[in-house]
Write a structure and sequence with these properties.
Layout: E1 18-21, E2 36-39, E3 44-47, E4 53-55, H1 56-64, H2 68-76, H3 101-113, H4 119-127, H5 132-137, H6 147-160
Helix pairs in contact: 1-2
This protein binds zinc ion.
Amino acid sequence: MARRCGLVLNDRTLEWEEVEASCPFCGDHGPGKHHLFLNTTRNIFRCVLCGEKGNSVSLYAKMEGVSNRQAFRALSEDSVLYRFPQQPLSQKPAEREPSSLAVRHNVYYDMLMHLELSPKHKADLLARGLSEERIEQNMYRTLPMSSSARRFLAGILSDFHNLEGVP
Ligand SMILES: [Zn+2]
């Protein structure tokens, strides 16, 4: 089925129980790599990079953009067409559009309202020549160091804001 779908197989592994192939779903982060494992006894595949997985029917379905049911029907008919092997294109993870400035401003402002300026950081700012008023005005804050505290902060904010697109 992998051949029929035009997957690029790793020749070295053709006799192995797990045949390796270039992943047509993520492109392996570059050509010449084989992250897709085709288990020839269990008739399943899995990409260790992008996690795409399935069996021979769903592989065909995904490659052809049809449902599993349609794929099964097509495969049950015996007009067998083999695609020409095609090196998949490497895909970079999509850059997520940041939310609008207004949305980010609201989230960050709210985040600042949950935080304090540590005495150490305040002393540093004073030592750099900033006045108490300026420090107050600029809303300097200290981010918590621990990842659990940061997660907690993000959790609080996510109750009031949609954080998708907010770096
Ligand atoms: Zn993949």
